[in-house]
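User: Reviewer 2 asked us to show a designed sequence for the structure in our supplementary figure. I'm pasting the structure tokens here. Could you produce the per-position amino acids so we can include them in the response letter?
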């Protein structure tokens, strides 16, 4: 019975006749059982999270430089007061971070109007090549990314999410930094931009594609020829624990009973559920199970879902489900943050099914590591400022830059000018 409950990487099934006799109203009376499972460090899954923030920050900077018409930028255009969107520690200078990876960011100096040498950065040939490869992969998989964004909006009550909320998830969804310019305008028949009551700009789904309203848990059951279980709502989650994780008998009994409860699809109305019941909690687990499946690497920082409570119709303290279900979700505390990882998606520290964008990111991580190690071994020499002044064209570019411009650029929030631009895109 124990291996059925835990799953150990296989789908847990609890096909009890007793469950089929339980009516919906009876199940609604199930109150949340006060069971608290301990958090156990999982070094293997921690490896899957290590370095994620640095990879993301470096890719955002790479994308910013690549998007500039001149293919190069002065350091002050990369470290304005909104540098926090990079996710780097406040005490770490952006220039210091970039210099750690000289095989990605090539530094040179251009004198400003007063003759003072200013650090500029451009991309190395290796970085440019990888960026072009990423663009190609995204273009080849646009339908997949379209479905991901649609399904994300379908998880909400009215098919609408603030841009800022989606922006927090764009890396996890595999979207490029400029997706509002390069992606959203291509689907004016699918999305529209709307202004919320609090004056924020949001993305709205114009229609409800029924073919997408199927959760990953339901899809897996259908593939395993368990259609009857889908119809009756008798679906359970795959559960597994790391070595050394011990479950008390009370916890085992609760987990088995909880898995038998009805599964409510995250794409169906849940307003009839009592938030104080285990049935409702199973729905909440299902929402996050589906949300993590929409991410390309089946993980996201816990803070990224903090603004999803109302749009996803979740109760207060909804992220407690991560602690109550450590066999489904693992909370990694690496990188000075908390990252929620979907256990079933990993075999060791590697994804079971790798998305093409994940392959690009793996290459990028290897490139970063290679540059860091080579730099630490002294294989890269610092440029001499006197010999690094570029041609007159770069000097002309330098003269057009200003501190005022550096406050905006790609790291600005969606404020008045930007929201006007977004509305214009989707007209």
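Assistant: Here is a per-position design you can include in the supplement:
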């Amino acid at each position: 019975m124990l291996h059925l409950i835990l799953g150990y990487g296989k789908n847990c099934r609890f096909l009890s006749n007793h469950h089929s006799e339980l009516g919906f109203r009876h199940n609604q009376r199930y109150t949340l059982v006060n069971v608290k499972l301990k958090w156990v460090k999982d070094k293997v899954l921690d490896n899957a999270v290590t370095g994620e923030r640095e990879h993301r920050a470096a890719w955002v900077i790479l994308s910013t430089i690549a998007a500039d018409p001149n293919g190069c930028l002065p350091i002050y255009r990369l470290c304005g007061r909104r540098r926090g969107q990079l996710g780097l520690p406040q005490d770490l200078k952006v220039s210091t971070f970039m210099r750690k990876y000289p095989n990605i960011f090539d530094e040179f100096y251009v004198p400003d109007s007063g003759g003072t040498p200013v650090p500029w950065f451009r991309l190395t040939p290796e970085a440019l090549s990888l960026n072009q490869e990423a663009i190609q992969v995204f273009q080849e998989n646009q339908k997949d990314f379209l479905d991901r964004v649609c399904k994300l909006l379908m998880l909400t009550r009215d098919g609408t999410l603030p841009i800022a909320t989606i922006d927090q998830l764009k890396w996890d969804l595999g979207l490029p930094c400029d997706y509002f310019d390069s992606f959203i305008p291509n689907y004016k028949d699918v999305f529209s931009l709307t202004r919320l009551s609090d004056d924020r700009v949001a993305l709205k789904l114009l229609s409800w594609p029924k073919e997408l309203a199927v959760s990953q848990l339901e899809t897996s059951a259908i593939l395993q020829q368990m259609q009857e279980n889908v119809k009756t709502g008798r679906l359970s989650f795959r559960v597994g624990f790391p070595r050394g994780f011990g479950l008390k008998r009370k916890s085992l009994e609760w987990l088995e009973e909880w898995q038998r409860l009805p599964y409510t699809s995250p794409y169906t109305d849940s307003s009839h559920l009592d938030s104080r019941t285990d049935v409702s909690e199973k729905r909440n687990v299902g929402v996050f199970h589906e949300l993590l499946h929409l991410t390309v690497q089946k993980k996201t920082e816990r803070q990224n879902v903090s603004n999803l409570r109302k749009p996803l119709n979740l109760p207060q303290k909804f992220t407690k489900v991560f602690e109550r279900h450590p066999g489904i979700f693992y909370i990694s505390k690496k990188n000075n943050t908390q990252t929620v990882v979907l256990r079933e998606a990993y075999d060791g520290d590697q994804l079971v099914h790798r998305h093409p964008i994940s392959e690009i990111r793996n290459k990028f991580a290897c490139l970063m590591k290679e540059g860091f190690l080579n730099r630490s071994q002294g294989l890269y020499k610092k440029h001499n400022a006197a010999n690094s002044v570029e041609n007159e064209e770069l000097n002309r570019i330098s003269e057009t830059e200003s501190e005022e411009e550096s406050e905006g650029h790609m790291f600005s929030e969606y404020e008045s000018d930007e929201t006007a631009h977004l509305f214009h895109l989707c007209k």
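For the response letter, you might also mention the following. The chain has three domains: 2-30+215-351, 52-132+361-425, 142-208. The chain has a mean pLDDT of 81.
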